[in-house]
């Protein structure tokens, strides 16, 4: 039960934050424009990031796609953290990017058994019964 609650809190937090920032980027709000003006790609990169954020926000709240939404959100946050550390002059949003990376990663870890990986993430009992 606790895992379910933690999962939902992380998913809702990521979905709300990503929906808000994705909409800001796609409506060419002044704040993201100032940030993306410092990055290669400018407005095109801002639109791509906004689309990825909205996709992650939708995927993470749908039960069957939550782990993929978490993965997409984590990838976006790795990019944001990299941009903050390597290019951007203002690091005021860096702590929030780290928090969102942690929340997205928590969703992936909590639901890792839903990933189509045959080499890991399967329960020990399932592997033993398959080999018997």
Work out the helicity level: over 70%
- What are the low-pLDDT stretches, counting only 5+ consecutive residues below 50? 127-132
Assign an overall shape: elongated
Order of helices and strands: HHHHHH
Structural class by helix and strand composition: mainly alpha
Strand content: under 5%
For the sheet with most strands, the description reads: none
Number of domains: 1
| Radius of gyration from CA coordinates | 17 Å
Please give the number of β-strands.
0
Our measurement of the CA-to-CA distance between the termini, rounded to an integer number of angstroms, reads 32 Å
Q: Can you give the mean pLDDT?
A: 88
Count of helix runs? 6
Question: How does this structure look, described?
Answer:
It is a single chain. With 132 residues, the chain is mainly α. The protein has one domain (2-131). The protein has helices spanning 2-26, 30-36, 42-61, 66-86, 94-110, 124-131. The longest helix is centred in the N-terminal third of the chain and has 25 residues, at 2-26. The radius of gyration is 17 Å and the shape is elongated. It starts with a helix and ends with a helix. The relative contact order is 0.14. Mean pLDDT is 88; it is low at 127-132.
């Amino acid at each position: 039960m606790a895992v379910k609650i933690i999962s939902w809190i992380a998913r809702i937090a990521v979905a709300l934050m990503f929906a808000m920032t994705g909409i800001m980027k796609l409506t060419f709000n002044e704040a993201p424009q100032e940030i993306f003006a410092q990055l290669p790609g400018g407005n095109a990169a801002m639109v791509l990031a906004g689309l990825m954020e909205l996709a992650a926000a939708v995927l993470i709240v749908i039960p069957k796609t939550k782990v993929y939404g978490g993965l997409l959100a984590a990838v976006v946050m790795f990019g944001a953290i990299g941009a903050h550390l390597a290019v951007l002059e203002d690091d005021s949003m860096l702590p929030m990017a780290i928090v969102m990376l942690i929340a997205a990663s928590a969703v992936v870890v909590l639901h890792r058994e839903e990933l189509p990986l045959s080499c890991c993430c399967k329960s020990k009992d399932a592997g033993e019964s398959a080999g018997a």
